[in-house]
Amino acid sequence: MSLPFLFGIHNHQPLGNFDYVIERLTTECYKPFLEEVKKYKYFKFSFHASGVLFRWWEAHRPDMLDLLGELIAQEQIELVCGGFFEPILASIPREDRKEQILRHKDYLRQKFGASPVGLWLTERVWEQSLVEDLVDLGLQYVVVDDRHFLVSGFETQDLYGYYLTEAEGKRLAVFPIDENLRYAIPFWPVNRLEAYIKDLISRGAELAIYFDDGEKFGAWPGTYKWVYKEGWLKEFLSSLGQWTERGLVRSMTFAEALKEFSPKGLAYLPTASYMEMEEWALPAKRILELEELHQRLNTEHSRFRSFIRGGHWKNFFVKYPEANYLHKRMLQVSQLSRSTKPFDQEARLSLLAAQCNDAYWHGVFGGLYLPHLRQAVWQALLSAEKRLRSPKTPQIISEDTDFDGKEELFYSSSKAVLVFKPSYGAHLVEWSNLLQKHNLQNTLTRRFEAYHVNIKEAAGGLEPSEEGVSSIHHLRKKPSSEVLAALVYDWYDRHSLVEHFFDPAKGLADFIACNFGEWGDFANQPFRYHRQRSTLLFFRDGGLYPPGSGRRPLLMRKKVAIKEAGLLLEISYDIEYRSSESTRCRFGVEFNFYPPFMVTGKGGIRLDHKPIDVHTPQDLWGEELEIWTPSEKKICLQVPEKTRFYIFPLRTVSQSEEGFDLTVQGITIMPFWEEEFRLGASFKKNLRIRWC
């Protein structure tokens, strides 16, 4: 009896990805794949595309919808649904994930007349609690990795079929994707793939199960040449026809297999994702330890690998505070959208768009490290919030916004949202202009990543493997000297209103390297506070610690007056030095901004009306700094007298599909003053910053 070959393909592009990128991928990947498979009517497959990509095709490439319609008419395609905006379903509220799925199902029904019974699970992030919701929505099956089963104790030879799982008495079919096929297609030569298919048959496999990213077919480095120009896809489809004629395999959709075959039994799966995802979700140092453990497990002990696991997807909220903060704000706006009367459909759609998963995590792709993806999510979130915020009098509430067990001060109006964190330097962690739908604090702290260890050892360029083409997980790229120089790690989070007392002998290069000799204990330490209407007074009885000296007491009072519905901040410092020993040092106030011109690519920074180069570090004197765009919208930072400024682009080194990326995450700006602190002396400074 021939082996049923279940072939599934998943296509998605992040919310906010550049049009030219999606256009290129459509031209070089998505469309040529569909055009080629259309020639082979015996090839049946299951197809998923996210709502994000469908909407883009509808607006820019309607020919893709026409092509899909032709394949559906030929009965080659089974459409599979998911969350419309491709969220991690386990990470969003139950009401939201139901709506995400229903929106995708409705879209496929309206556009193609399809009623999908299967679900593509974003990043295969599974939690058993999903079962009840999926069944209630009329879904019959979901696909996950075979790893989900292996970590539960199943053996590989038992996974060439599907199982039933259950929650609250409701049953759902679960198909385990064959990891070998996931790594083989399209990277192995076809003759090697044929040998593997024959091996499955010899072992009595009931189903050959493949479902993976469509970007492998032309978008991943080297694959366009391999898959199309060198003919891998054509050879595979032709060979599939030959295998079918010989009775080796038969092409089948997942829905057809569900009808024709019985389940192999019952399975209860743990919270899980694919192996690489579980590794990426670990803290960087633990990733290195896990890699070492895998290396120690030689071939003789490889059978134990399935019991070795990393973290779960939600650990990204622990690993990256920026992702956690964005996620918790999303939950906040979700609740607001569900409780606001009358119901605002447009706000609801924007909120669902803000749940698109890509900007919330980082693995082999840029994800969280790509500012334009974070910006797209923030823009969608703030679009919803703008419609939902009541135009009543601005208010400040104390709440644990980021779920870390410590309260933040949350200011909201119909024009702005500002969030201060007293437990961590009384930093300004969010300053969102709801009118412009822009969070000025959308920056990223420079952190150690496990792959940084291997940068110096990276070989040059794309290296083909002995057979076929390299998988994306094995690519290497030689780093530039600029990349190596950017491997700097911050010891505090890159927010705004960060106060430094630092070594006067240190310069701009030291500040960029985050090695500027911090003498104070204010930058990331807790402050107490008082609140009077829209004015916040933060204070800390701290100290200075010059090298070779003990603590020299110093009291800082930081007053922030919030005016113009949150678009103007008047900041004043009152510093009282309480040590008998004088201390000469510098005092600076650091701002880390993601300026609007980084979104549009137009605009820049002027200091005292003179433009400065934001791409290179600057050590300048001035009184008024303007962040501007051609629309004349600007942000003005004013100091009371000529003041020295350090300004530099905040760059991170991250891993990507090409190897390593050097990315500007924001602009760091610090006015500072050099002072001689003496007993009883009072030091006062005022700053004013405003959205104009």
Description:
The chain has 20 helices and 26 strands. It has 692 residues and is an alpha+beta fold. Among the domains are: 271 residues, Alpha-Beta Barrel (7-stranded beta/alpha barrel), CATH 3.20.110.20; 205 residues, Distorted Sandwich (Beta-galactosidase, Chain A, domain 5), CATH 2.70.98.10. The strands form 4 sheets. Strands 15, 16, 17, 18, 19, 20, 21, 22, 23, 24, 25 and 26 form a 12-stranded antiparallel beta sheet that branches. Strands 1, 2, 3, 8 and 9 form a 5-stranded parallel beta sheet that branches. A 5-stranded antiparallel beta sheet has the order 10-11-12-13-14. Helix 16 packs antiparallel against helix 17. The protein is elongated. About 1% of the residues have low confidence.
Give the helix tally.
Answer: 20
Query: What is the CATH topology assignment of the domain at 3-273?
Result: 7-stranded beta/alpha barrel
Instruction: Give the helix level as a range of percent.
Output: 25-40%
Please tell me the overall pLDDT.
94
Number of E-state strands: 26
Q: How would a crystallographer describe the biggest sheet? A: 12 strands, antiparallel
Question: Strand content of the residues, in percent?
Answer: 25-35%
Which structural class is indicated by helix and strand composition? alpha+beta
User: What's the CATH first level of the domain at 3-273?
Assistant: Alpha Beta
